[in-house]
Amino acid sequence: MCFSCQTAATRLAPVDAATGSSATTADGRGAPGHDATSVNPAGLPTAYEHGNRLTPEGTSVDPILVEIVQGTLASVEMEVETAIARTSRSPMIRDAHDFRAGIHDRQLRKLTGRSYSALVHPVVRDFPLAEMGEGDVFFHNDVYESEGGIGHLPDLCVTVPVFSGGEVVAFVQAFGHHDDIGGAVPGSMPSNARSVFEEGLSVPPIRLWDKGVPNQAALRIMTRNSRMPDSLAADLDAECSACLMGARRLAELFERYGRDTIEAAFDAILDQTTETYRREILGKIPDGTYVWEDYAEHDGVDEPMLHTQRITLTKSSTGGPGRSEQYPDGGPRLVIDFTGTGPQAKGPINHCGDYVGGNFLKKWLAPILRNLADTPERMAELDVNEGVVPLIEMRFPEKGTLLTPIYPAPTNARTFVILRLLGVLAGVVAKAVDGRMPADQETIRYTGVYGKDRDGNDYLMREVLGGGSGGRYYADGEDTIHVVPDSRNLPTEFTESRFPFLVERLGLAVDSGGAGRHRGGLGYEKHIRMLEDAHFMSIADRSILACWGVKGGKAGRPFEVTVDVGGPEERTVDALADAEPVRAGQVIRIRTTGGGGWGDPLDRPYDEVERDLRWGKVSFEGARRDYGVVATGDRDEPVVDVAASDALREQLRSERPDAQPFFDRGPGYARLAGGQPSADVDWV
Fold first, then answer.
1. Pick from 321-325, 384-388, 573-577, 598-602: least confident
2. pLDDT by residue (tens digit) across 327-336?
3. Taking a C-beta distance cutoff of 8 angstroms, is the pair 345, 301 a contact?
4. Whole-angstrom distance, CA of residue 439 vs CA of residue 599
5. CA torsion sign, 175 to 177 to 179 to 183?
6. Which ranges are annotated Low complexity under compositional bias (predicted)?
7. Which end of the chain has fewer CB within 10 Å, C or N?
8. Helices (H) then strands (E): counts for the chain
9. Is 138:158 a contact under the CB 8 Å cutoff?
10. Nearest-5° angle of CA 217, CA 218, CA 222?
11. What does the alpha-carbon distance between residue 397 and residue 423 come to, in Å, rounded to a whole number?
């Protein structure tokens, strides 16, 4: 018997996080019938205990102490992230802040909710708690052995156990997107990869530090495989040291109040989240079943096509957790069924989501539900931690789809799927609540250049530029935001001093936001003039399909990159590009996506269109075309001709078809759908 199977066989039966009962199915996806020798879809043992309460149901704890513990957890999480930001080296970690931290209890439940994080499950699967020691640091980035917590190989994850009384009581974890972990192209994200082997070095869970002593052999292997070894070594050291510091802080909390008290507070924190979402969020969705789908547009290998991601959402008022006098048949719950999702792609847009009952995806998607809160202020107060997990059941299709890929399918551009799923959930909920959800927002795109600097040294600059968020039923979308919390564009002063190019423009992309009663947020427009010959790279979606509008709102403008703007070799670059040549002196123009609009743009008040003209967010031509507003003057002093605008709006309304779909996908959809302007699921 292999070591991993032997250790698995001695552990407790798995506990389904949604129900609290022992169990998973024969395919490892979280339903009854699983025993201690079963394996998950990757062939790995899943017989490890997780998801249980730490204290008996009904255990009392001082609510003031719960507030103290909750505040301490948030403080430690922020301190860990601050330490990483201040001591790391690569632009992606230090400057762009593409990393996250999380705190989990010994039942592997995520306690903090300021941002998403990876999972502890694969570490505990391979290293029993009893074999862990103080000062240990565990490492992994293997997509298929991460239980769904790691989406692509550049996301490196470190996990540190917290000890109290000689036993593991919690975990501090950090993972971030690193510059390079090997593979076929600089940055480890080959756009046309056909297997995970082309994407870089894949490391299953290992003990990277043993009781405070780093494993220099493992570190040397990783840095030897990287084109940026110094940055990789420095970033890993920063993350390990920060998590060890966080573990010490948490150990002090246990020492101060005692293990029983702290664990009771942990349960109370998660119980509070469960009850809040049950009472304030799920109750806003009418009982019933709703279906919607959206698409990725290309996978880097096949020609552009519709790669479907479908959600069938079922809301019921019973069957969920919390059986009591108030909920004798259980409280409300959601079932998210991904049946109908398209087949596994040849290229790297797949995501391994069907592990641990979809535990990672539940916490990844749940923030969308916060939009149902009574007010925007209340929405901002709601965290997403393990307390949302019992309220959601996920059902996955058989192996071999975009969400259930078969090893060794490539995954480096999996954001095309998991970020699209945020929009699919928003769309299917919008159908249930008459559109009281945001329109579609930007998705992550990686752009950058690489080559030799003026001293002949290799360099790699990558950036994760944001885009516009969707219009909402009460407000416009936000400009140039990013779905990754606290992330940012790279400072011009930094990039110009380190890399051989000049940033000649960084501003808003005019007219990029989808028209609507509430306009979609605008994307970026960035111009980079190269000082040395180089190669441009891009891993981006939404270059054909646009961020959709809802309830009469129009789609935003898609992503676009142009090389040699205004020059003799001006050309549009494909959104998936590994090595587009750019000569010294040529300008690269990057325009990121605008968010979708919400509501009829012909209902947008004239004074708001005038303000957009004054602020330069909408052009005079765009105001006429998209909003039916005739204006004269200039940007400093625009003047709306009310009579002419009233007449134009009346004409535009008369030219519309009598019936319109609930969602507007923009003209790119028809290009990929054989001329069909909308999907069947777009109508309500």
1. 321-325
2. 777 889 999 9
3. yes
4. 9
5. positive
6. 17-29
7. N
8. 14, 23
9. yes
10. 120
11. 19
Q: Please give the pLDDT value at position 545.
A: 97
Among residues 471, 527, 470, the alpha carbon closest in space to that of 501 is found at: 527
Instruction: Please give the pLDDT value at position 181.
Output: 96
Amino acid at 202: S
Q: What is the pLDDT of residue 47?
A: 55
pLDDT tier, 35 (very low <50, low <70, confident <90, very high otherwise): very low
Candidates 364, 647, 619; CA nearest to 484 is 364
Task: Find out whether 463 and 490 touch, Cβ atoms under 8 Å.
Answer: yes
Calculate the average pLDDT of the chain: 91
What are residue 256's phi and psi, to 5 degrees?
-70, -40
Residue 543's identity, in one-letter code, is S
In sequence order, the β-bridge partners of residue 164 are: 167
* DSSP 8-state class, residue 10: T
And the tokens for 75?
Answer: 């403080």
Share of the chain above pLDDT 70, in %: 93
- The per-residue DSSP string of 143-159 comes to GGGTTTS--STTEEEEE
- Average pLDDT (632-640) is 95
- pLDDT score for 330: 82
The candidate with the shortest Cα–Cα distance to 66, out of 322, 274, 278, 261, is 261
The values of phi and psi at residue 545, to 5°, are -75, 145
Residues 6+ positions from 487 with CB-CB distance below 8 Å: 96, 97, 98, 464, 466
What does the DSSP assignment read for 347-374?
SS------SGGGHHHHHHHGGGGGGGSS
Q: What is the DSSP letter of 345?
A: P
* Strand partners for 206: 139
In degrees, rounded to 5, the angle at the alpha carbon of residue 416 between the alpha carbons of residues 193 and 478 is: 145
Distance CA 410, CA 347 (A): 6
pLDDT tens digits along 308-359: 999 999 999 998 887 777 777 788 999 999 999 999 999 999 999 999 999 9
The answer to whether 176 and 116 are in contact (CB under 8 A) is no
- Does residue 28 have a pLDDT over 80? no
- Type of residue at 581: P
**Confidence band of 46 (pLDDT split at 50, 70, 90):** low
Whether 41 has a pLDDT exceeding 50, the answer reads no
- Residue recorded with tokens 């972990």: 181
First to last CA, the chain: 56
Residue 655 CA to residue 644 CA, distance in Å, equals 17
Buried-exposed string 188-217: b where 16+ CB fall within 10 A, e elsewhere: bbbbbbbebebbbbbbbbebbbeeeeeeee
Give residues with Cβ within 8 angstroms of 644, minimum separation 6.
630
What DSSP designation does 108 have?
Answer: -
Backbone angles phi, psi at 86, to 5 degrees: -85, -15
With 80 as the cut, is the pLDDT of residue 22 above it?
no
Q: Could you tell me what percentage of the chain is helix, strand and coil, using 3-state DSSP and rounding each to the nearest 5?
A: 30, 20, 50
If phi > 0 it is left, if psi is from -120 to 50 it is alpha, else beta; for residue 509 that is beta
Q: How far apart are CA 664 and CA 669, in angstroms?
A: 9
Q: Coil, strand or helix: which one is 499?
A: coil
The model's pLDDT over 383-394, given as tens digits with 9 standing for 90+, comes to 999 999 999 999
Q: Is the dihedral of CA 508, 513, 519, 521 positive or negative?
A: negative
Cα distance between residue 48 and residue 285, in whole Å: 35
The answer to whether 237 and 231 are in contact (CB under 8 A) is no
DSSP state of 650: H
